Predict the structure.
Amino acid sequence: MIIEFTKYHGLGNDFILVDNRHSMEPILSPEIAIQMCDRHFGIGADGVIFVLPGQDDTDYTMRIFNSDGSEPEMCGNGIRCLARFLTDLEGDATIGKSYRIHTLAGLMVPRLEENEQVTVDMGLPQLLAAQIPTTLGSPDDKVIEQPLEVDGKFWLVTCVSMGNPHCITFVEDASAIALSSLGNQFERHPVFPQRTNTEFIQVIRPDYLKMRVWERGAGATLACGTGACASVVAGVLTNKCDRICTVELPGGCLKIHWSHDDGRVYMTGPAKKVFSGSYFL
């Protein structure tokens, strides 16, 4: 069996895109996705993204398998890559064109911009403990700067869901964080029944944050779009940053806007095609 694919990246967060428009279910198993994502024995990626037919009055459906085979609800960098992949499939890269994408986190609407940029309406952040989900605090309360013990230290964490769970903690120096040892401990902490993504945020200025991220199911990555969105929301909730903010990640910068008018979060960043090929199973 031969699988045709195209690889894209959003700020170094890289994905294998597969045209799955002929079926409502991914044509590959999580086990095959793990093989494809292997950087030594496969193509190499943080995840595999499938473009499926639309449902519930949407243009397309997006499904993702992480590099460990797990399935996240959404991926901010991934949906920008998906939008660029759709321009290749349709042969239409008109600036301003948008897509209505069904995801496990709900409706997402990416819009094509100039210079390989894509703006995504990421929807309303969810802030209640039950929505994250986390057992930090009561189910109907927000989790803002709550102490959480990890690796023998108490961290003040704020939790936000952008359709997937995020645990954000603000630090003096993001580059000094031992991400490889701390990330997995945060991800699998018992207070997060569905595990969590974790962002370590350094405030450079109120309009500029520096972020390092440990992604649930993928580990340390160069960028996380939903994480950048969640971090700005957490920064506003804790009076640490503005609603319009640049978030610097190891792979580059994203522009995030948590709108005061409609309460929705908008993310703008690049998505770049790397190469196309065939994978032999």
Remarks:
- The radius of gyration is 18 Å.
- The chain has a mean pLDDT of 97.
- The first helix runs from residue 30 to 37.
- The chain has two domains: 2-123+270-280, 129-263.
